[in-house]
Design brief:
Helix content: 55-70%
Structural class: mainly alpha
Low-confidence stretches: 56-62
Largest sheet: none
Shape: globular
Number of strands: 0
Number of helices: 7
Radius of gyration: 15 Å
Distance between the termini: 25 Å
Order of helices and strands: HHHHHHH
Strand content: under 5%
Mean pLDDT: 75
Length: 116
Amino acid sequence: MSAELWRTYVEWLKARAPASHANLAPPASEAQIAEVERVTGVVLPNDVKAERVHARVTDGSLSYDLLIRILVAEGDLEGAQRELDALMARKPKYPGKEKLQGILARAIGQRDGDSS
């Protein structure tokens, strides 16, 4: 996703879905992005860094939301499940829980050949 596309999306939310726009977390800091890279061992593309992804920060400087998405994108579904389980143990009422569970479930379904 390009930075321009992200800005367009955020402006669309602001105009047409103000409640969703208000629910966006602030952009991730450079330190948070560096922490995700350190923990995952994945260097994020420069365009992702430039977008300063709006990431939900739930525990100190690490954005578990972003970490889980990166692990799924990298195909480390077991790692993503471990991080999601750890997040749920720390924050059982995490507001993005269902969304992350859905992302992971779809990825597992695709890996296992489930067409649903």
